[in-house]
Write a structure and sequence with these properties.
The complex is a heterodimer of chains A (about 260) and B (about 290). With about 260 residues, chain A is mainly α. Chain A is built from twelve helices and three strands, in the order H-H-H-H-H-H-H-H-E-H-E-E-H-H-H. Chain A has a domain of about 80 residues. By secondary structure, chain B is of the alpha/beta class. Chain B contains nine helices and 14 strands. In chain B, helix 1 runs parallel beside helix 2, helix 4 crosses helix 5 and helix 8 packs across helix 9. The two termini of chain B are about 30 Å apart. The chains are: A mainly alpha (about 260), B alpha/beta (about 290). At the A-B interface, helix 1 and helix 3 of A face helix 2, helix 3, strand 7, strand 8 and helix 4 of B.
């Protein structure tokens, strides 16, 4: 067998439950009192177990909410269908929330995929590339020179959910100390950002969320302001700008 | 930080180190190393952990001011028959330009097949086809980085039936044909010797000493499979006495090569790694005294 075919068969046998080794592939390996399946199981455990451990670290709230057995089964199902595509594992796991939406055993926990999105955003935020924040001193120049665009920093993530994700996450971490969160009619608009070295989150008003989302989608600044004023005439642009500049949310580079 | 002497690595392109023994830099030790500045010759990092920003990049930048750094890649997949990921190389190159590591290495194994990266160091048959493939990929990587790299012997848990050569022959040939150096992992040799039934001392005696640029030491675990036990290269325990004995032999055969203590899982307090590093340093000093007597 050519090396390329050996590696393809090896991968198939590690990942696919139903993969049968053909005789030519089996004959490649030395056989002794430890069976080939036992030897492959070491690699399977290393690969699947290693990737599960990485995902478990990225998505701690899934484990806290559903327990280790459910989480392990879920993660292994995800891994078998979604192997990493590069040697940079910071990028691995971003597809898990969408996978949960299609994973029938999770159907009874409707907020699980959004919790996964929240965990993923916190992790991705923490690993995002560094960039320089817009400072209050930079903002002072806006009186004479309003920038065309006001981009959010690379580490910023925005999303909303019909569920109170921060409350669910807090409850999952401290179920004995906190009351169960009210799930109905309790949506969350969230900004995940990295003011220093650690990722943090901020609950936004729907007006703030509306405005920041437009900036995040690369709308020109004045267009975003006008849109937001149409959506909410009470929108206070100066105060919003000051608040999020103080938090280091805007990127300096393209000013 | 006090250092007793300078030892030169014996592979081309290597820098002069203030101390021959280094430890792996891992997240749980960032603050302790930064605060304590322990007397360690160098720090090893997996560059893949520093492709992004935030806390990891922050501490690497801080610690680079006090320590020499080596890059030990785990994601290039030198043995992949499907080619090398150019984007991965570019990201490492950007880090090389920033951090100027004195050494750069990866493994004589494969991880990537097609679009999938399996996140493990998988075994290769030791055939002429494999030798040619590894040589092509190593040369391509060295050309891209414009520097030589070290290639590490792997741990394996299964062996191919129809090898054309022994693993040490393959390692020597890689060095001879590409100009790369050998990163010799004593624990990997011991693990494989147990798993596949060969003499680890014989393996080391057959390695071309002039090509070796770095030694690795780590702990392994045992896994019972019926009547047999397989050793697994877990990097989760102290170095076993058998591996220290092999290290002593390696120093005598290969010379006084910069040595790394690796610990990647169940990471203990920093002092445990420093104690292991001290042990390696003492064995190296004993070897120097013995050879100069």
């Amino acid at each position: 067998m050519k090396l390329e075919d050996i590696q393809t068969c090896f991968q198939d046998h590690i990942i696919r439950h139903d993969h049968q080794m053909d005789d030519a592939f089996k004959a490649l390996y030395k056989q002794d009192d430890i069976t080939l399946d036992q030897r492959f199981s070491i690699y399977r455990d290393n690969i699947i177990g290693g990737l599960s451990a990485i995902l478990m670290e990225i998505f701690p709230t899934i484990n806290a909410l559903t327990g280790k057995d459910f989480t392990n089964t879920l993660l292994r199902a995800y891994i078998r269908h979604n192997l990493p595509q590069s040697g940079c594992l910071d990028e691995y796991g971003g597809g898990l929330p969408d996978f949960i939406d299609t994973y029938n055993p999770a159907a009874s926990v409707p907020y699980l995929s959004d919790i996964a999105r929240f965990d993923w955003a916190l992790s991705a935020c923490e690993h995002s590339l560094d960039d320089a924040p817009l400072t209050p001193q930079d903002m002072a120049t806006f009186q004479t020179n309003i920038p065309e665009y006001l981009p959010l920093r690379t580490s910023c993530f925005l999303f909303s959910s019909p569920y109170p994700l921060p409350d669910i996450k807090s409850f999952a971490a401290n179920p004995d100390d906190l009351p169960p969160p009210k799930l109905d009619d309790n949506p969350a608009h969230l900004l995940i950002y990295r003011p220093a070295l650690k990722a943090e989150y901020l609950k936004l008003t729907d007006i703030e969320f509306f405005f920041l989302t437009r900036l995040h989608h690369s709308l020109p600044l004045m267009e975003a302001v006008e849109d937001t004023l149409r959506y909410a005439p009470s929108f206070d642009f100066a105060k919003t700008l000051q608040n999020f500049t103080m938090r280091g949310v805007f990127r300096k580079a393209e000013i | 930080m006090t250092h007793s002497r300078h030892i030169n690595t014996n592979h081309q392109g290597s820098a002069s180190l203030p101390d021959p023994v280094g430890i792996g830099l891992r997240g749980p030790h960032y603050h302790d190393i930064y605060d304590q500045k322990p007397a360690i010759g160098w720090l090893e990092v997996h560059p893949e952990n520093y492709f992004g920003g935030g806390i990891h990049r922050h501490f690497l930048e801080k610690l680079r001011a006090d320590y020499e750094i080596s890059f030990h890649a785990v994601g290039i997949s030198l043995g992949s028959a499907h080619g090398i990921d150019q984007n991965h190389l570019q990201k490492i190159k950007e880090l090389i330009d920033i951090f100027s590591p004195f050494q750069l290495s990866d493994h004589a194994s494969w991880s990537a097949s097609g679009n999938a990266h399996l996140n493990d160091l998988l075994p290769l048959p030791y055939t002429h086809e494999t030798l040619n493939l590894l040589c092509d990929n190593i040369s391509r990587v060295q050309d891209f980085f414009k520097r030589s790299i070290l290639v590490e012997n792997p741990s394996t848990y299964m062996a191919y039936a129809d090898n054309d050569m022994e693993e040490y022959d393959l390692m020597n040939a890689l060095a001879a044909q590409t100009g790369c150096g050998i990163l010799l992992d004593c624990n990997n040799i011991f693990v494989q010797a147990h798993n596949h039934g060969f003499d680890p001392f014989h393996y080391i005696s057959n390695i071309n000493a002039a090509a070796v640029g770095e030694l690795h030491l780590a702990g392994h675990s045992e896994r019972d499979l019926g009547a047999r036990t397989i050793l697994i290269d877990t990097h989760s325990k102290p170095v076993k006495q058998d591996v220290w004995d092999l290290y002593r032999h390696a120093l005598e055969h290969l010379g006084h090569i910069p040595t790394l203590i690796e610990w990647d899982a169940d990471i203990p307090p920093l002092q445990t790694l420093l104690d292991e590093a001290d042990k390696a340093r003492i064995i190296m000093q004993q070897s120097i005294i013995k050879q100069s007597a």
